[in-house]
Design goal:
It contains 9 helices and 34 strands. With 624 residues, it is α/β, with parallel strands linked by helices. It has 3 domains: 221 residues, Jelly Rolls (Sandwich), CATH 2.60.120.260; 79 residues, Immunoglobulin-like (Sandwich), CATH 2.60.40; 304 residues, Alpha-Beta Barrel (TIM Barrel). The strands form 8 sheets. The chain has an 8-stranded parallel β-barrel, surrounded by 4 helices. Helix 6 runs parallel beside helix 7 and helix 8 runs parallel beside helix 9. It starts with a helix and ends with a helix. The relative contact order is 0.10. The N terminus is likely disordered. Bound molecules: (2S,3S,4S,5R)-3,4,5-trihydroxy-6-oxo-oxane-2-carboxylic acid. The site of (2S,3S,4S,5R)-3,4,5-trihydroxy-6-oxo-oxane-2-carboxylic acid has 9 residues, from loops. The site of (2S,3S,4S,5R)-3,4,5-trihydroxy-6-oxo-oxane-2-carboxylic acid (GCB) has 9 residues, from loops. It is an enzyme of class 3 (hydrolase).
Length: 624
Amino acid sequence: MKKLLTALLLLATAAVAIPAAAAPAVPTSPDLRPAFLLTASPSRDSQDLSGQWTFSKDLYRTGLNDINGWVAKSRMQRYRDLDVATEEAKGGATFFEFDMDRGAQMSIPGAWNAAKPELRYYDGLVWFQRKFRAKPLAGGRAFLRFEAVNYRAYVYLNGKEIGRHEGGFTPFVLEVTEALRDGDNRLTVGVDSSHDAQTIPTPITDWDLYGGITRPVRLVYAPATFIDDAALTLKENGRITGEVQLQGARAANQAVTVDIGGLAKATATTDANGRAAIDIAAPAKLQRWSPDSPKLYDVRVTAAGDTIRDRIGFRTIAVKGSQILLNGKPIFLRGISLHEEEFGPNPARNMTEQAARALLTEIKHGLHGNYVRLSHYPHSETTVRLADEMGLLVWSEIPVYWTVDWDNPAVLGKALAMQAETIYRDRNRAAVVLWSVGNETPVSAPRTAFHGAMADNVRRLDPTRLISAALLVERHKVDGEDVTAIQDPLVDKLDVLAVNTYAGWYGDDPLDALPGLKWQVPADRPLILSEFGADALAGYRNDGKRKFTEEYQAEYYRKTLAMAEKIPTLRGLSPWILKDFQSPRREHPVFQNGWNRKGLMSETGVKKEAFGVLADYYATRAGR
Ligand code: GCB
């Protein structure tokens, strides 16, 4: 078993961020820590590479490989460090079948599917190029930090391969100290959006393709020895614990100081691996973070002449019997599910702060919510930081959705690495309280073993938060009566049970039957309804007997909420979903046209009747 775990861990570290052969080797660590995190990069000297990039489609992947498995032809290699027009002007036999400098432009970050009509359903490789000027620090180091590239990235700087990454929703950092030029630089990124049976997720989902460089890219400067990451958390025993990780030749034996908003100061010394453990009593005046009072402290970490800053909230989260306790007090999660998709008729999954704020404001103030399920993959850092600032508890998940290749250790390796990248990214966010290990995956022995390994991985990497999964429910007869039950051995690994239920939308149940449906769930565990929902086209109205009307959706909500009220262990709700979202699965020509219509709001922000039903329910709940 230990051997298998070690093999998996090695696979996991190898699966996701791979520096090019020429770059320094990455230590494969059992804690699945990516080689570099640079989590506090916004507080560092850095250059935002957002803006206009040129691009070139490459459906047959000619820039990566030639026919017959040969090396790509040089006339196809989009990442070459040359000016095609200048070469052409020389005449002669050489010619090119691309020109990144004279190619069409696209605004980055943003998915290509929204940028150009001809790329609407393009699923494959696209090359992007951005030129920029750099002024490297003498004796310092430089890194590229990508917040997300969907789904695979091949990164080249000035014609040299810097590294690769797999996974569409997590950040990765590649060192470019050697390849970066003082002056003009040419950054080329091949982005492959295609998914297969061994990717996470597979090609079959219920959301849009959104290929591209979907989140910001930064060039980050750091001293030769620097603070890569610092994490702090409040424990139930009243102590603040955490770690500071230094990188570089002088990382060992360094004095580290952590200042928590001027309230408390911790000092420690790094060990041989550049790591310092922090453990101090929480200061008496420390205000606990909560949705009602989302207090964040300015935290400043200093070591080896380097300083990073972060804004961190302190709270505890625990389960006791069937209660969820925030700062020791029972809490009911008044939430909603959300896809990473901004309001508007043609979203590009470009989650600017303004776009994220518009969505979260509807949850916090429109619905009177205190919780959001960020489905079905890690959302942008912007969204999670905003949840911290605005006071919304967060459920976070990676896209182990429906079915993945359960029997394949390499796929499990990818899942564990994605989880690790998410946890290392977000472990300072007080808002995040739940890590989910899957969504609606059909029960089988290999699937349960896969999720079990994921749950163990989360427990090891972050024992301070709760573990859940959005499970399927079964309907069966008990004494002639229809009973909804969870029949899933995975429950043994979870702190909070969560189920998706669509009675009244999928299936034959009349709405009036919903409040009478019987539930059989463990009495000693908290339960969340992680999804329920019904489609409605905003503005389509009649007597409410027809599906897709606003009235039907509103009545579905009334009846489902009445059903939920009867489940004694119910501790939270995240109905499906705040806003209509794009999905090629949904092709009804009158009601859907490529949109899943289960939003409480249309894609442009028009509220449907059911929005008011849930808002009223949450307003009452908040007062209880
Ligand atoms: C689900 C899935 C979600 C779908 C939703 C639906 O159970 O978890 O991704 O979009 O149902 O609309 O059917």
